[in-house]
Amino acid sequence: MDLAYIWFFIVGFLFVGYFVLDGFDFGVGMSLPFLGKNDVSRRQVINTIGPVWDLNETWVIVAGACLFAAFPEWYATLFSGFYLALLLILLALILRGVSFEYRHQRDSVKWRKRFDTMIVVGSAVPALLWGVAFANIVQGVPIDASHEFTGSFLTLLNPYGLLGGLTTLLLFFTHGVYFVALKTDGQVHADARVLARRSGMLTVVVAAAFLIWTIFIAAEHGAPFLVLVIAGAAIAAVALIMSLIFNMRDREGWAFGFGALTIVAAVLTLWFALFPNVMPSSTDPAFSLTIENASSTDYTLTIMTWAAVIFLPLVLLYQGWTYWIFRKRVTRSHIEKAAAVTH
């Protein structure tokens, strides 16, 4: 297989990893108003991702760097056309990171409340806009013969794009609440299970509508992997339902695992629906960016492949080690003891 096609799927793998890992970070942040009934419970929720959120976020940096190096035409058209949406995502991620670091720096209720609000906003905006962006990439956007995006930010806010954004918002929210249930005890754990059941039921309806619509778009575009698109959508649907069932049975580890599988299958569904394009043109199919006309030279891709073979396993091992070190639950008693020592 040509290296450009291999790198199409490597970039897809990186985005899958990002959405699974930073996805539950977004969900934890968005769940704060629902599960953080007092300062102790809010700290308990935030501390579930405290040691790992910044490591999870690096996946998008690596994905963006690989996209730039492997598919410069795709990167140029994407970042120029989706500039405002991606800028809003970047600002939201900065806002969220600053809030995690500064909310505990002053013993003031108003101070912490402001940063808690920033965490919620900084989590919800990317969760929504990533879905809007990728839905538009799959559906196709106005691109001219010189591969210039001719639309605007409002062009992206179409029914399918907004449904994609709502789907990722709800998927990440439910995924994050599963993680809170997995990593906490006491009232927060119990509340998280109830919240996941409610949000999960809504997610099933919205995600089903989005995935069915995606199948029709893939069929309309003549996607060569249509069977895999349908299979991916089916796996995502079954995994999401299974996550709900395990959540109801208080098997939070299995619920979180199936929630992660849902996101993996959903992203792969979009990736297979997109193939062999990378940005279809709604102006004229002849103007579409494809894997072949958007990729770098074979020499560049060869160097990148060797780098990936050497460094990607090391990154995965380090990430796995980090999660193993911080595998224990964040208990309420631990938070209360820490607060007593601080005061």
From TrEMBL:
Signal peptide: none
Main localization, broad class: membrane
Pfam families reported in the protein's UniProt record: Cyt_bd_oxida_II (PF02322)
Superkingdom in the source lineage: Bacteria
Compartments reported by the entry: Cell membrane
Membrane topology label: Multi-pass membrane protein
Keyword annotations of the record: Cell membrane, Electron transport, Heme, Iron, Membrane, Metal-binding, Transmembrane, Transmembrane helix, Transport
Cross-referenced InterPro entries: Cyt-d_oxidase_su2
TM ranges: 6-32, 77-98, 119-139, 159-181, 201-219, 225-246, 253-274, 303-326
Keyword Iron-sulfur in record: no
UniProt record similarity statement: Belongs to the cytochrome ubiquinol oxidase subunit 2 family.
NCBIfam families, sorted: cydB
Protein name (Swiss-Prot/TrEMBL): Cytochrome d ubiquinol oxidase subunit II
Provenance organism: Microbacterium marmarense
